[in-house]
Amino acid sequence: MTVSKERKAELTAQFGNSPVDTGNPKVQVAILSERIKELTEHMKSHQKDFHTRRGLLMLVGRRRRLLSYIKKNDIVEYRELIKALGIRDNIQ
C-alpha cells in the first residue's frame, strides 16, 4: 500500500519547486496525505488490522508536525496547501 512512482512524480511536480524536489515540506505532506487516504480505505474493510492502524496514526502525526512547521513559517502557503489537499485546519 504505497504510492506509485508515477503518482509521487505528479505530486512532486504539483507541489514542489522542481520535479525532483521531494524534500520540500509541501511535497512531503502531499505524499503523506495520499498514503493516509489509501490506508484509510484499507481500514474500512479491515477494522481489526491494528498494525496498519498504528502505522496510519503515525503517518497522521508526521503530517500534523509538517503542517505545523509550514503554518509557523508561512501561513498563506499553509492555507493554500490544505485547500488543495482537502485537509481540515485543526493545527493550533
UniProtKB/TrEMBL annotation:
GO terms for molecular function: rRNA binding; structural constituent of ribosome. GO terms for biological process: translation. Residues 1-20 are annotated as: Disordered. The keyword Amino-acid biosynthesis does not apply. CDD domains: Ribosomal_S15p_S13e. Part of the 30S ribosomal subunit. Forms a bridge to the 50S subunit in the 70S ribosome, contacting the 23S rRNA. Belongs to the universal ribosomal protein uS15 family. This is Small ribosomal subunit protein uS15. It comes from Collinsella aerofaciens.
